[in-house]
Every structure is written in structure tokens, then in C-alpha cells.
Design brief:
four-stranded parallel β-sheet, Rossmann fold, nine-stranded mixed β-sheet, alpha/beta, 23 helices, 3 domains
Length: about 650
Amino acid sequence: MLLRWRNWIIFVMQSVAIGGAMVLAWLLRFDFTLPHRRLLFSSAALLMVIRLTAMYAYKLNHGYWRYTGIGDLNDLVKAVFVGSAVFIALLRGGGVASFPLSICVLEGVLAFLFLAGLRVGARLYFQWRGAKHLGTRTPVIIVGAGSAAVLLLQGLKETTYVAVGLVDDDLGKRRTKLCGVPVFGPIDELPLLAHRVLASEILIAIPSATAVQMLRITNLCARAGLPFRTMPSLADLIAGNMRPSEFRQVNLDELLQREPVQLETNNVRARLGGRVVMVTGAAGSIGSELCKQIIRFQPRKLICVDQAETPLFNLQQHILGGASGEIVFSVADITDTERMRRLLLEHHVRVIFHAAAYKHVPLTEENPYEGFKNNVFGLLDLVETAEACGCGDFLLISSDKAVKPSSLMGCTKRIGEMIVGSREPSRMRCVSVRFGNVLGSQGSVIPVFQEQIRTRRSITVTHPEMTRYFMTIPEAVSLVLQAFTVGEHGNILVLDMGEPLRIRDLAKTLIRMSGLTENEVSVVYSGIRPGEKLSEELFYDSEVQRATMVPKIMCAEAALPGWHELRRRLDELAGVVHSRSGDLIRSKVKQMIPEYSWVQPLLGVFPESQALTGEFNGHEKHRLEPQADSRHRESTDSSLASESRLQSDFG
């Protein structure tokens, strides 16, 4: 019933506008007199029918005038033009040649103005009424004055925000207005301008900004001392995930303080297409992304292996929708040699991406037996089983913690590199990939920081000078795939990840990018945890860095022990690991990896002010120096004497 009444109201309003345009045109033509009234009313009735029909054809008879835009006005011009043309043709065809053409022209112009005025007036009314109900609106300043800013300004009209100014580096846009909002000086003047216009928040409307550009903008926002957010990307808008008036938190890529490395993977298809591929640790951050990427290269079959059932189930739900090849999801433990052998033989696996490993440093320090059982001896058994089952390619995912390790987890990764790199050349090619921390991966520091920020808790950083190399999940996966194509047997490939980042700076940047200030979320220091060190390295001093055919990927070459010698040491290590004694394990590992040095933890939580005034001074150096020799000198002889009597579970 309401819809019917609305349609009648719209019909009457448009009819009155058309009739009024005809009468006013007649008055203008005859000096505000009304001669030939019979002709006037008959022609007005005919014209009204023609115009309403033309408007119906162009779908202009609806009442959604509050959303009137350029497209509606464009259709209105067409409808008025067509209506006038039909009207003139009927007049000439009906023998009314004396009807003044000037009236037709005047009436067309006036009809457009009246009909457009109805729509624009309705839109302004609804905007005024909406603003009236919103109450006090939040003044914001917008960074960027391009097409994204136009979308943003239009979207803000229905929100509690009101734009009071824009900043842009384009000199041609200064002292102009965009949708009625003034454009001020360059972005560098943002802190000054934001306070001058009394802005309460900053909105960034540059979805195409690079990570370096975004870092510069966010630093300026931090200097302004105002919360800020950034507009969704064009991809999000096209996909319908967000509206222009909605805002996302800054992308994790922007934390890198460098441009993400873009590696070509076109040549991967030739190495994976039509082959049976297995990914171990498939439910993890790297493993799951690997599975999703590998499917694009059309393998004959993909075997996803993980011992964690629920994450594997989640992967199954995400990956099956767009998959074209056969996919098998296997709940299996890589240390179960017989189970892995059956999988390899049953599916005729020819390529293995080995991402199954324990990666958390403190947990591995507390559980060395499980760490070595999985990361070292599980790998050893899998490599030997894969070669026996006819596998052609084996790729191990390593870590920068394998370089001069200070943790048992890093030691397991280094020994893994030695296992893969020391194997004698055979029909199975073995390659290792070494990279740093992965932003946003499961259990990484970024999700922890984000949760602490979300709950407005203090962000906990272990040490103010701790640095790490970082990369994104897409970077890590593209590196793995590239390494698979360019690596030769025994190679250790390393991605150029730029300069290492201080964790403290990363935390502060994340606070700013979340639209908060350091007064709302503080940074405290807990001290270095067991097995951690202040900084990581990508290469040993003894390794020669050789360029590969891929510019951003280097090859680390070093003399490794022969396979038979390494196998003998691994047998000895297995006996020591079976003892479950952390001291004995560290002593044996020190013999295998002379660069290994255990870092003593410093417990306690310190606010940033104390950390920066010297509370950590005097503690750093002795924690970073080798501890194993002096700490375990007395226990080393007894451990070597007893290890031969211990039985191994890793056979």
C-alpha cells in the first residue's frame, strides 16, 4: 500500500514539473501572457504523456532520489531529448507547423531543470535529515585527493564522520576543492594541518600506496598524535568485502618497511604439472599456503599430510572449492616411518615439500627430546624412505635460526640442513630453503601483538634491541617454489629480506597502524627467553654467498661433513637424545655445531623507560657468549662414555 502511494506521489510531482515547464516556456515566449490557451493545454497534455513514457523507458519513474547521481542525470538528459524530439515530430506530422520551436527548446531546458531539481532537492533533504539524526559528527582529515578520496567522501555522508580537509602531494590540487572539501598542502604538513582544522582522526585514502609510502604516511600520522585508519583496497571494494566508508587496519606487508619481493613462479608449472606432490606440515601457515599455491600448477595429485586433525580439516574446507586435481588429506605423523612409506608407495609421490617441524624456541628448549625426534630424526627417516620409494625431489624448509644457533630449535634446523646437504648425489635431488620470521604465521609475534593491542594490554617485547629478519607468507611460499625450480642437489637457498627490523619498532609501528597511541598501549620488556638471541644472521662466516638465476635468491655454499661421517654423528646424537638430558644433548650438539652457543635467559618484566635507561646493560654480553663448553665441561666426558650404552628410539 505504501509503495502504491509513493508511486502516485512521484507520478504527480513529475507531471506537475513537466506541465509547469511547458507553461513557463509559453509565458517566456509571449512576454508572460497566455495566448492560444487551447493549443497550450492540448500540447501540454500530449507532451506530458510523451515525457512520462520516455522517463519510464529510461527507468526514471522510481523514487530512490536520495541516491541520485551523475548516471541518473545523464539518463534524464536522454529522456528529455527523446521526448522533445518525439513531440516535435508529432507536431510536424499532425500539421501543427506553426507551433513555435523556441517553446520546445525552452520547455526541454526547463523540464530538465525541474525534474533534476526534484531529485537533487530530495537527496539534499535526506542528507540533511540524516545528519540531523547523527548528532555530533567526528571531524577527520583525509590523506589523498584522488578517486579513492572521492569514493570515501561520498561514503562518509552516511556515517558519523565529516571531512574538514584533504592533503595531497600533487601541486595541481592545492587550494582546490574535492566534493566541496578543501585540499591543503603536501602530506608532509599533515601534523600541522590536522591540528589547524581541529581534526579528531586521520583517514588514509590511498589504497595503492606502497609499503614504503604507507610507512611515511603512518609516521606523519603518529607525529600528529591522532588515531588513523586506511581505506580498503580496490580489490576489496570490487569483491564487495568492504564499502568505501569502511576502513581496514594497515596490511601486514606494510610492517616490512620495504617492498615485498615479487618472485616469478611461471616456471614452477613445468616442474610440478602432472606430478604427485606431498606437503608435510600442510596445515601450518607455510604448508597451507604452499598447498593452495601448488594446486594452481595442476599437479596430478596433491597429498596434504599433518598430524593436527582440526587444522587439516580447516584446510580441506578452504582448498577443495577451487581445486581441479585430486587432493588427499592424510592425518599422519612424519616420525611414523611405516605410515609414511605406505603413503609414498600408495600414491607414487615424486615431490616432497617438507614443512613439518616444531618451530617455537622456548618450547623446544623445554622439550628437546620431541624437538630432535621430529625435526632431526623424523626428517632423516623421511629422506631415506622417500629416496627408497622413488621420490625425485625433496625440499626442506629451514630457518635463519640455523645460523650460529643459540637454541636447540635452531640446532635441529642446522642439522636438518646438514642431512639434506651432505647426502651423496642420487636420483633424488635435495634442497634446503632458509628464511626469517614470517609475518602473521601461526604463533608468530604479530598475532600476539595484535591480540594485546585489541585488548588494550601492554605489548610484551623481550629486549629493546632485539632484531629479526621478516618476510610475508606469500614471499616465503614464492621463495620455496622458486628454490624448488633453481636449486641443485645440496643447495641452501636464502632470500634477500632487506635489513633486519627491531621488534620494538615493529610493535610501535603496529600500535600506530592500529589507530592507537603509545599512551593507550605501552611497551614492556620481559627479557630474553631461553634459546633466544638479540639478532639473527642469514649466513655463516664460512659460507660463500653465490648468486642464482633469480636476483633476490642467494645460494649459501660451505663444506659440510661427508654423509658417512654425519650418519655416525647422528647415531651418537640419537643415543644422547634418548637420555632426555638437556645438558647431555647440548654437549653433543656443540660437537656437531661448533658455532652453537646457549643463551641464558633474563627473567622479569621491565617497562620501556627502564629498558632504555640501562636496566639491560651489563646483562647482554654474557648472555650472548658461548656457554656450552664452560657449563658442561664436567658432564661432557660422562655423557660421551654413557651414550654408547643408550638405546635409540629413532632407528
